[in-house]
Amino acid sequence: MDKEFLEQGLNHNRRKFLSRLSLGVGSVALGSLLIPDLFSGKKEAEESLMRALPHFAPKAKRIIYLFQNGAPSQLETFDYKPQLIKSFGQELPESIRMGQRLTGMTAGQDSFPLVGSYFDFNQYGESRAWISSLFPHISSVVDDLCIIKSMHTEAINHDPALTFFQTGAQVGNRPSMGSWLSYGLGSENENLPAFCVLLSRGKGNGQGVYSKLWSSGFLDARHQGVQFSSSEDPVLYLSDAEGVDKNQRRRMLDQLAAMNELSYQEFNDPQITTKVQQYEMAFRMQTAVPEITDVSKEPDAVVKLYGPDCLVPGTYAANCLLARKLSENGVRFVQLYHQGWDTHDNLPNQMIGQAKDVDQASAALITDLKQRGLLDETLVIWGGEFGRTNYCQGKIAPENYGRDHHPRAFSIFMAGGGVKSGMVYGETDDFGYNIQENPVHVHDFQATVMHLMGIDHEKLIYKHLGRRYRLTYVHGKVVSDLIA
Amino acid sequence: MKPKILLENLLIFWCGLTAILLVGGENLQLPTWLQVVGRLHPLLLHFPIVLLLLGASLLWIRDENRMRYFTWLLLIGANLAGATVVAGLFLATEDYSGDAISWHKWTAISSQGVAVALYFLRDRAITILRSLSLSLSALLVLAGHFGAALTHGEDFLLAPLKSASEQPLSIAEAEVFRDLVQPIFESKCVACHQEGKIKGELRLDLLTGIQKGGKSGALFVAGKPELSLLIQRIHLPLEEEEHMPPKNKLQLTEEELEILSLWVSSGGGFDQKVMDLPQEDPLFQLVSARFSAKKSYTFSAADQDDIADLTTFFRKVRPIFPGSPALEVAYYGSSSFDAKSLAELNVVRDQVVKLNLNRMPLQEVDLSLLADFQNLESLSLNFTSVSGAQLKSLINLPKLEILAISGNTLNEEGIKALAEMPQLKRLYLWQTGLKEQQKKELEKVLPTTRLDFGYEGNGVIYPLNPPKIKFESTLFEGKTEVSLSHPIRSTEIRYTLDGSLPDSVSSAVYKDPIVLSASTPIRARAFAAGWIGSADTKELLIKKGITPSAFNLVTPPNPKYAAKGATSLFDGVKAKANHTTGDWLGFSESPLDITLTLGSVQPKLLEVSFLLHEGAYIFPPQSLEVWIGNKGVWKKVNSLPQANSTKIEEARFGLVSIPLPAGTMDQIRLKAQPIAKLPSWHPGAGAKGWIFVDEILVH
Asked: For the ranges A84-88, A265-269, B50-54, B138-142, which has the lowest average pLDDT?
């Protein structure tokens, strides 16, 4: 009897449960109507997202990123702080520092004396932006620039900060920005890699760059950056071996592809397909690259624009010129690195040298793109991985001082590609230490760059080892004020 | 009195009051406290709606007690309906007029009447009650809807449905007033300034109303925001009575304030297009991001298969945006281009809006087919050798806005063709060889086109980079060819073969590769008009000698720089310009003193290849002596004082040539003495110098 009673009770409860559930199910069903992706297979949804790239009409088609590796000081370039000159030698107030952690290089210093810019500042162009005397050429194109004085980052040392800028994470192994764009948008010109990397080095104190910065991470290897050589032959081993003509090369590749196909059928390793595609691209690069790298086709005016250094392979100027040629030929993302900005001591001298390397060529690139009608669709980005402290590292003198790493505020600029021109965005306090208005985090910057390329940074996702990744992790807000 | 009786009496009271107000409303003079009562209308109205609808719905429920509840709900509801109507009639004396208000008034009064009737007829047959209650519900809904339209503006209810289906407007079509200013009026102002509720005698729902202004005067003074009532009122502090919109209404955002001010200061026009604003205009900068950069196109999409067929590695055809019918086409790889590949585009001529032919060889290509590309908006022809005659094909492209022809020399014909394209917005003319006069002319005939002449570098003078010297190897056998080159095409390269510095006047001009048959120093410089002559590049090419049958180093080299001993001097391998490579023999304490035993050959020339690098204390030998021997009899032939370095220079090669006299010899002895004391100008003045030798050549 007890048993039946129990069953009756259970049945009753079950009926009640089910009848309640029916309403519950109804509400869930309604909910799912309002949130279409709730129950749909995520993978399919992601795939259809991918097919629809770009997500909206892009303003920029290509990017040239002039990375100033080592972190150029914002206080000697774009962030004019007369207060620091007045307060020369005075202690950095604790109310300004607010417990900011320091690097091991200055943490042991007894005092943190403020030091102002050795270089004069002036206002230029219609925008009346302040730029230091280090950059006479850049100041001449100031009305094409969108200067952001309120960048901030999370890392305080070069490698993590650089990795963070390029991949959205401070540790390695994530895809670089160029790889994400290659993955998302593909190549414009399939005879060239979508993502190219060019290195140069100034005489200033340098910091290394490593290939992890242009790695494709967990994305297919064909999205990784292709590093060009800084020798006279930017791409090595492109010419056919002696005695091998084009047709023989073609037949060899066809045979190789057939064998690789067999191997693919056996092992199903996607890297095999990638390899075949890479061989094919290299074959097409055999004609495409020499056409592009031939400097002799450039008019004299171009050499005068970039400066005669642009004829010396491996210099920043030569890389800027090469970047323009690659970009003009449909390379989605050209990443330059110019090393030597890490000015812990002897800052004025080092910066004079570095500025001499980059000033003319950076401005030239903008002018050159403009006179070909390409600036509107090419986004040029110039900047380092963080800023430098407003106090002196080591010995202090008005004409000789050093600055340590400073992640809380620094300046970069962008030009073309759908950003507002003649704009100065964001402001720091009188000490140039903290951001006062319109902060732009590295993830915001990345989201904005993706937006300009027609990508919703929240939707360009790749699932790897059970987790979904994107360039901006779970952060990032498009800074629409910067967009024209 | 029982409450029920009281409430029933009150019902009649409301009906009477309503009737009176309807008859005499025109002349109503309200004391201020009653105005407050009137303004309670928006609060009160919710109660009768709820109670009456609830009561009406009871008639469909089978429950023995329903009539009890029905009676009370109807009684209270109808009373509140009466109060609401009266308050509404008070409120209507404020600035309301027009169709919506009268519809609202009459549907509301009818609701009140039907509710009262329903209450008193509550004992009648259920069918009568039901039909009455249906009409009551309908009236309530209508009255409520018209009322909401008065408060929130017309279309409030369905607006989300409409806007969701609307595409974001393309910036090309956007107008300042229609798409920026009017929407602000509509969302924030028109609720109180429109037909039906014309507060301050100002109507913002009509163009004429906006132009006319209201009770206090004109709405705005074109170009003078500070004198414009509109701008003054919206910028007043929130507490001010005159502040618009009123404190309790939805306020303007910062951006909307800005837009209205900028609109007035720009003249307050009604048909300005956003795209016609200059790019640096603050209004343009503020609002351009709100519109989609994508244009909407009316033509139909091209066939997917056609697009796929046209796409090759060298010709990319794709929609400008996923789903757009408009196509952009880019050509890559000038060596893969032929005229046919352009002609093939004809299939999609109606869809192509953007065409990039940069660097394709177009000199002989017929461009007349482009005249059919009626939707083409942007055409890039940089560095294509396109001629003026070819440009004529582009005259009749109505939508062409961007034309880039940088890098093509333009003749008069070309300039004439361009003059007939006034619709162009941007024209890129860098490196087109135009004279100042021609540039001015073009600017005059194309007043609305932005011309970009680019950077020509006029007046900028830089030194040229030195030319490059190319050859097979420093040490050559017999003859060798040397070629000189410079990356700038217009340069002239001049060279010397005697070690002197080339100049721009008398030195030989390089044309064809130079053939050398003896050891030679080559120096070359580049010159060009508009440039400073380059520094020189130099190379020393050395002809290989014969290997002596035996050699003997009298004094050994410094053990640190011994290479492979004397053999290294005759191995025919030129060492690199660095004394630590292990290919150089270095002498400091002792001289280089070597005896060569010859075979049957009778040499005419002896050459010694040195390294020179003052910074590393490596100098030319202080003295160099040569003897020839014949069967044990030695004869000194030469004694050359050397050591002519005067400053520190980079590491480089030096070659000393010693002609040998005619006559029989079977041995040669060479003695080279390192500099004993470095000269006074050297940082290591007084120290012993070094000599480094890598090859000795017997010719």
From this structure: A265-269
Determine the Cα–Cα distance for residues B527 and B523; give it in Å rounded to an integer.
14
Contact A415, A421 (CB under 8 A): yes
pLDDT of residue A42: 47
Which single residue is written with the structure tokens 């001015």? B440
Helices (H) and strands (E) in chain B, counts: 19, 26
pLDDT tens per residue across span B393-405 = 999 899 999 999 9
How confident is the model over A301-319, as pLDDT tens digits?
Answer: 999 999 999 999 999 999 9
Residue B132 per-residue DSSP state? H
Given the DSSP bridges, would you call strands A62-68 and A378-383 parallel, antiparallel or unpaired?
parallel
Distance CA A172, CA A411 (A): 24
Q: CA B267 to CA B277: how far, in whole Å?
A: 12
Contact with chain A for residue B406, Cβ under 8 A:
yes
Please say whether the beta carbons of A452 and A333 come within 8 A.
no
Q: Assign 3-class secondary structure to B194-244.
A: ECCEEHHHCCCCCHHHHHHCECCECCCCCCCHHHCHHHHHHHCCCCCCCCC
Bridge-based pairing of strands A195-201 and B592-597 is unpaired
- Cα-flanking dihedrals φ and ψ of residue A465, to 5°? 50, 45
Q: What distance, in Å, lies between the first and last C-alpha atoms of chain B?
A: 145
d(CA B698, CA B544): 8
Distance CA B368, CA B46 (A): 72
Residue B173, both tokens: 């079509």
For A462, B30, B74, B79, B115, the CA distances from B83, given in Å and listed in that order, are: 63, 16, 14, 6, 13
B49: tokens are 């709606």
pLDDT, position A28: 53
Compute CA distances B49 → B85, B87, B193, whole Å. 12, 15, 27
Residue A295's pLDDT is what? 76
Residues 311..330 of B with a Cβ closer than 8 Å to A: which?
313-314, 316, 320-322, 324, 330
Q: How is residue B687 annotated by DSSP?
A: S
Longest dimension (CA), chain A: 106
Lookup: tokens for A283: 């074959």
pLDDT tens digits along B211-255: 888 888 888 888 888 888 889 889 888 888 888 888 777 888 888
Interface test with A, best of B170, B275, B279, B280 (most A CBs within 10 A): B280
Chain B CB contacts of A297 below 8 Å? 383
pLDDT of residue A117 exceeding 90, the answer is yes
Chain A residues with CB-CB distance to B383 below 8 A: 297
Indicate the pLDDT class of residue A11, thresholds 50, 70 and 90. Answer: low
Between positions 442 and 471 of B, the ones with CB within 8 A of A are 452-457, 460, 462-465
Instruction: Burial-class residue A282 by CB neighbours within 10 Å (0-12, 13-18, 19+).
Output: middle
- Residues comprising chain B, all counted: 699
User: What is the SS3 assignment for B383?
Assistant: coil
d(CA A425, CA A79): 11
Asked if A308's CB is within 8 angstroms of B321's CB, the reply is no
Chain Cα centroid distance, residue B516:
53
> How confident is the model over A215-225, as pLDDT tens digits?
999 998 889 99
pLDDT tens digit string along A326-372? Answer: 999 999 999 999 999 999 999 999 999 999 999 999 999 999 999 99
Section A38-45 average pLDDT: 47
Greater confidence (B18 vs A8) lies with: B18
Look at residue A49 in the predicted model and tell me its pLDDT.
46
Using only C-alpha atoms, what is the Rg of chain B?
50
C-alpha triplet A8, A12, A13: angle, nearest 5°:
120
How many residues does this entry show for chain A? 484
Q: What is the DSSP letter of B303?
A: P
Out of A25-29, A382-386, B475-479, pick the least confident: A25-29
